[in-house]
């Protein structure tokens, strides 16, 4: 049966397994900030009854082995498709007595757990950084793994620091939290930007509606604002402070972020004093920068493969309230597809996402073109997913 691209669909493009009875029945893709992309793919096979099921799958090559590269394509239309490049972390074969049976074969389901192309960043290593900027550190780590760094450049430099017995991924997460940056993975593109920078590539913004009008099928099933509407002073409840110590003069200086100086409670940006006042100022400003999207909401909508962390969505409708209409920034997305091969009308594509904005009535997003270059394509080289190029130094 030909693939209906206007209905929810999913397909394993690589590796190609020659089988007349093999199709994807369920897909779950989890995307978020500071986490590796993860996908669970269930594939239905037609296995002969005369042989052992697991042995038959391994001998014929229809079972994808662990650590093998996989290219998954999922979506709900010709312009709403997304690619997932990853590696097989594990697989499970599910059989039961009530499976569909035929004269000489039966249906068997195999569920693959895939981890994104950035999984090599979990390798632990030892490094020492001296007077290096956050953008330089991120570019160096990503290029060592043939990943494309999409880093917002800055002029500040960090003090000497050591990366001891921790993976590159953990080190990047700590670096992003310290500098007030958002860490998002888009296949082989690793993005470290301000939380307000949009990672949307084209001009189209996915839109969802909740009108609650008779006869109209809304695309929003549930919308719930979790935090932020009653938070005063633009969501900054605490005062961010940091300290710097000069060993030559033995002077301890205090630095307060101006945007949070009027708050009554205090939060220290670091446990130990910084080596310079410039670094102390950076840490004091970075502390509230991580909470810029302080108005947050949870939504369950009709599936759209274009929705991923760092992109905007448009929410509208009388059923959402007057202050919730407009653009929101996606913080995490959970795609779930249930596919029916013989009847595409029974296929279901749902999307659960967490969104945020920096104002109760709007979002001040920064266009990607002002900060980042265009994303880099993903290619397969020697059994590994690599960025087509990693950019200039």
Search tags:
about 400 residues; mainly beta; twelve-stranded mixed beta sheet; three-stranded mixed beta sheet; 4 helices; globular
Give a written overview of the molecule:
The strands form five sheets. Strands 1, 2, 3, 4, 5, 6, 12, 13, 17, 18, 19 and 20 form a twelve-stranded mixed sheet that branches. The model is unreliable at 229-235 (pLDDT under 50). The radius of gyration is 24 Å and the shape is globular. 11% of the residues lie in helices and 41% in strands. A hairpin with a 2-residue loop joins strand 21 and strand 22. The termini are far apart. With 393 residues, it is mainly beta.
Tell me the layout of helices and strands.
Blueprint: E1 9-14, E2 22-32, E3 38-48, H1 53-60, E4 69-75, E5 81-94, E6 105-116, E7 124-129, H2 134-144, E8 148-151, E9 161-167, H3 168-179, E10 182-186, E11 189-193, E12 207-209, E13 220-227, E14 238-246, E15 251-256, E16 265-268, H4 277-289, E17 295-302, E18 312-316, E19 326-338, E20 348-357, E21 378-381, E22 384-387
Parallel strand pairs: 8-11, 12-18, 14-16
Antiparallel strand pairs: 1-4, 2-3, 2-19, 3-6, 4-5, 5-6, 7-9, 10-11, 13-17, 14-15, 17-20, 18-19, 19-20, 21-22
């Amino acid at each position: 049966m030909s693939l209906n691209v206007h209905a929810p669909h999913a397909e394993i493009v690589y590796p190609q397994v020659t089988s007349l009875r093999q199709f994807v029945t369920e897909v779950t893709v989890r995307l978020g900030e500071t986490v590796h992309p993860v996908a669970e793919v269930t594939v239905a096979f037609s296995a002969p009854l005369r042989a052992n099921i697991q042995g038959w799958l391994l001998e014929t090559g229809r079972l994808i082995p662990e650590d093998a590269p996989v290219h998954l394509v999922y979506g709900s239309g010709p312009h709403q498709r997304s690619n997932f490049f990853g590696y097989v972390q594990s697989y499970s074969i599910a059989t039961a007595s009530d499976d569909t049976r035929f004269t000489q074969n039966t249906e068997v389901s195999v569920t693959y757990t895939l981890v994104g192309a950035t999984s090599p960043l979990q390798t632990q290593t030892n490094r020492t950084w001296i007077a290096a900027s956050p953008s330089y550190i991120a570019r160096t780590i990503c290029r060592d793994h043939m990943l494309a760094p999409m880093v917002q450049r800055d002029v500040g430099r960090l003090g000497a620091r050591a990366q001891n017995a921790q993976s590159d991924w953990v080190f990047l997460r700590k670096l992003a939290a310290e500098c007030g940056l958002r860490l998002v993975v888009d296949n082989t593109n690793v993005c470290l930007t301000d939380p307000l920078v949009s990672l949307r590539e084209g001009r189209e913004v996915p839109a969802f509606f909740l009108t609650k009008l008779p006869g109209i099928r809304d695309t929003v099933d549930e919308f719930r604002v979790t935090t932020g509407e009653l938070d005063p002073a633009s969501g900054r409840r605490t005062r961010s402070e940091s300290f710097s110590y000069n060993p030559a003069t033995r002077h301890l200086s205090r630095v307060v972020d101006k945007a949070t100086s009027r708050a009554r409670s205090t939060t220290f940006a670091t446990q130990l004093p910084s080596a310079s006042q410039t670094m102390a100022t950076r840490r004091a400003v970075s502390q509230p920068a991580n909470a810029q999207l302080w108005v947050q909401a949870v939504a369950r909508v009709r599936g759209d493969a274009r929705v991923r962390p760092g992109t905007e969505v448009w929410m509208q409708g009388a059923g959402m309230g007057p202050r919730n209409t407009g653009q929101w920034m996606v913080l995490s997305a959970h795609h779930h597809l249930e596919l029916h091969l013989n009847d595409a009308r029974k296929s279901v594509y749902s999307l659960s996402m967490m969104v945020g904005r920096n104002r109760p009535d709007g979002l001040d997003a920064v266009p990607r073109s002002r900060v980042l270059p265009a994303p880099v394509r993903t290619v397969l080289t020697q059994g590994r997913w690599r960025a087509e190029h990693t950019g200039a130094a």
